[in-house]
């Protein structure tokens, strides 16, 4: 499984990698035979980079960064990260580094396309400044909207997060898979099975339905032989069981539970993520068409760009 990882400068830690959420999360997910390429993108000569340089550029001040020094520093950082994390992924995994020039999101997607990668992983943790946080969210937005691959947005959990210490000790992640049981969602389930992350300790399969709307329609329709709310709840529970049956053949070390919540999708996701104290939310994207990506916006797009205390895996089947 080929994975392209966006790598940026980070200030904390002796080698500038302590705050990175992406590589530790990939280690915990433990995709089998992972071929990981860490890509750092520098601005091409004559184009502002970020932070103070971008602000100066915007007001017309001359910007003359030393691009040779910038590229040398970038290479040094990439080499250190490869050296540190190269052994993270076991004997069946490989890690290499690469530096390219251009726009970060475009280069990530181009590289993923050219190498036939299955996954793009980026760090979505809040940065040290408002501007850098905005730029991080912009990369996530561009990649989620335009990439042909599945996207992993890694976020550091707050230090005081409930259960974080015990899960590190147990060595597993807790995840929630939200599905609407459409044909596309079913293909995403099959894709997750092929990805076969071995590091998920427990997976909640979640489906939601608008119970209030159904009750209003039942009131308008009068007495019905079958309660539509109960019928839909039972139908979704059976579909959840089918998803668990499919995934259990691929995720041998994972335990599962089924949850059907009578609430709007976003409310149901928020509720289950909090109750499960989950580390990872797994969602299916739509297709590759523009209209389908607009439909994605109400759920997957929201969880991709909003600053949340957990990571998000958006599957594109």
Description:
It is a single chain. With 317 residues, the chain is an alpha/beta fold. The chain folds into 2 domains: 2-154, HUPs (Rossmann fold, 3-Layer(aba) Sandwich), CATH 3.40.50.620; 164-315, Rossmann fold (3-Layer(aba) Sandwich). 45% of the residues lie in helices and 21% in strands. The protein has a 10-stranded mixed sheet with strand order 3-2-1-4-5-10-9-6-7-8, sandwiched between helices. Strand 4 (119-123), helix 5 and strand 5 form a beta-alpha-beta unit. Helix 4 (104-114) runs parallel beside helix 5 (130-146) and helix 5 runs antiparallel to helix 11 (290-305). The longest helix has 21 residues, at 228-248.
